[in-house]
């Protein structure tokens, strides 16, 4: 099964989530919730994470920041440590979680706010609490918002208050935050902002510019391997467009030249060959974005150039300098 894209860097914010293997309710017992919570808090301290929000239901949802860029190693420790403790307590063995955890890189300016509110409202969606007492669900950072003495140093709960009109961390401010959460569940426009389809799918939570920055910085041209899976198709598309844009600047061409020049134009074949050598781009994508006719034509043109020597191939080397 293809492995999902994992982007890690110091200061990254994530929505991390996972569920029990075969969708088993591993958090159905109080002791299991307590054990996972203990492991989570230990992981936060061990790996110096900042915990903005979390909630344990049949699955777990975390909004965390990794100042040291260590999400994978920390999540591996968290889930394996909890699994070992769970299996010892139940005299069982085997995997508890449904494969690798899922993580979405979060644009803190645009998506961290709705993500925190979404996580805090999960017990209400699961019909575990009433709207009037959503803070009563024990295994959620919203509970800790109302139990200040129980918070750990890694918790940063001031953000949920800040994102709700800069409320103070006082009883009055916390009650106002509950009113704000109730409003989120009743206002149609606000409900769309905290919808699970918007906050739990894909590989990154952010706009076009944010995703382009991630791909440009963390998936450089020439990186070994290529992306797989439906969740990564968007990342591939962004990557290919960025590479094409840089190639066009090297050969001094633009979209108008793409439409006007011949399908087998020398510069088009140079760019196509470079992209085939350094990315996983398919011929169908190249035919569409370089106006090169049909896919097998791209294969024929690029194969001929790859076997040639002299001035044309030297131009290819100039394009390849963008990988340096």
The secondary structure category is alpha+beta
Report the span from N to C terminus.
Answer: 32 Å
Question: How many helical elements?
Answer: 16
Element-level helix/strand string:
EHEEHEHHHHHHHEHHHHHHH
Question: Strand content of the residues, in percent?
Answer: 5-15%
Helix content: 40-55%
CATH class of the largest domain: Alpha Beta
CATH architecture of the largest domain: 2-Layer Sandwich
Instruction: Quickly count the domains.
Output: 2
Strand line-up across the major sheet: 2-3-1-4-5
Largest sheet: 5 strands, mixed
- Which regions are unreliable across 5 or more consecutive residues at pLDDT < 50? none
For the structure shown, list the relevant keywords:
324 residues; alpha+beta; Alpha-Beta Plaits; 2 domains; five-stranded mixed sheet
The gist of it:
The protein is α+β, with helices and mostly antiparallel strands. The protein has helices at 30-46, 71-90, 112-120, 122-125, 141-145, 158-162, 171-186, 188-193, 196-199, 208-218, 233-251, 255-260, 266-278, 283-290, 295-306, 311-320, and strands at residues 12-19, 50-56, 59-66, 102-106, 204-205.
